[in-house]
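anyone seen this seq b4? input:
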Amino acid sequence: MSQPLSAEQLLGAWRRMVTIREFEERLHREMPKGMIPGFTHLYSGQEAIAVGVCDTLDREDVIVSTHRGHGHCLAKGCEVKPMMQEIYGRAGGLCGGKGGSMHIADFSKGMLGANGIVGGGPPLATGAALAFRNLGNRRVSVGFGGDGSANQGTVFEAMNMAVVLKVPTLFVFENNGYSENTAADYAIGARDLAERCAAFGMPAETGDGTDFFDVYERTQRAVERARNGEGPSSLVFTCTRFFGHFEGDPQKYRAADEVDTFRQTMDCLSKFRDRVTGEGWLEEAALQQVHDEVLALIDEAVEEAMAAPLPDLATLTTDVYTTY
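predicted toks r here
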């Protein structure tokens, strides 16, 4: 197979995926120390989806995330240190320390926000896409959701509206198999989620969420279709998560050795590394150098976040309402 992306693009994708993985793995170690307020939902295991999707987008395109949103933020270009400070609730965070893990946003990067409401993102992405269609600017929006969001009425309404109004948006479902703690094969009556999406009148397909190249290629086709005024598409990517629904989740719904097995067989980073080195597209030394740089950056981000000031009490009532 010919090389689908340049070496620079491949190395950039690797950097983003490794950054998400190490960011989340570090938070997993930091959470029990009691310095991070609120709930945290980690994205480890799903990195190829966030990066594969966002690498097809331009800076001006937008995404709307979920409660499990750190990976989407980092894939769309949000910076590590302000993100870490936001999660620690510090004044230097992307949202001034007021959003925390589940409500990070950076409009300057096209990241319209993580969302604590299951299924809250697709309606917002549809609204953004409607604006893009009316402006005729060829921009695209992406609404991320998990398999749990696929059963939400708001998502159904957004999908129907997107088709009727023919707006440039993508509905990306990350099916990690459990929603919160209920198996998707029980909770999704249609069984085939892509077929349900297609019933709304849009192209829909299922891909391997542990394969960056599969995600990238499928998304690239859907994005081009949207830019050309052909309307929305749905993409369902199968994957797994390496941690619980939230930090502290006892995960009694999983087999004792399930996660260890999945780390061996469904690790998107290992698959990417094996592919690019096996094809001769990148050298192992270059991948390791990036990994080392990312680890150093995460260390710095945690140290700076812990030392950063909390928001001033005078800012308590700011950022509550906005005026257009």
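The chain has a mean pLDDT of 95. The first strand starts at residue 62 and ends at 64. kinda curious what u guys think
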